[in-house]
Amino acid sequence: MRILFLGDVVGRPGRRAVAALLPALIREHDPALVVANGENAAGGLGMDFKTARQLFDAGVQVLTSGNHVWKIKDFYPTLDTEPRILRPANYPPGAPGRGMGVYAAGGVEVAVINLMGRTFMDDIDCPFRAVDALLDRLDARDTPVPVRLVDIHAEATSEKIALAYHLAGRVSAVLGTHTHVQTNDARILPGGTAALTDAGMCGVRDSALGMDPRAIIERFITGLPKRFTVASGEELVSGVWVDVDPETGRALDVGLVS
Which residues are catalytic? Predict the structure, then answer.
């Protein structure tokens, strides 16, 4: 079975790119499951019910997120009621929503786990210990769920790679998000775990991580706060596909979408 994973969707251009390009990707790859990180889908910072619904209508089946998922407070109840939307599992108890879901995909159950790193990020619970606890829950189920996908939303390359090795042989894929720049290190680790440091983004190609570069340049030069706006221009979709043995959960192949 093939799983298709798209990097951070940035603002209206990102949503538009997914709506325009995902159908062709689905025809090309015939994925059993399509997952995307939607934490920047609303105005380039946050997610709301409308933008999530647009991504679902475009063909995305599960939405992961990260630190910006808390930007729009009116969205918090949706995190509790919509099982197809995840927030990082390692937020402390009491945070709205859930960090793991199990979804039917082509006759197979797939567990999707959303984590967030701590290096240069928010000071939250340990993602390594959090994912260990979630895997213990999956292992204790009466019905096995060998196909397991992890979105690690993190800034530091070393933290993403360390987590991938920590989970090698225990999950099908560990795919990084948050930095919006697709990396060229897709590989399969010992034990059959696909790994990629960052899946990239869905948004404007000629931009600074999906945003208009001019305000960002001015902020770097002056050191003063600036309001960032979503860029406009040629749009792209970036991500990764992973082929998985549905019986063992081992990754068989992995490749970039760009």
Answer: 68
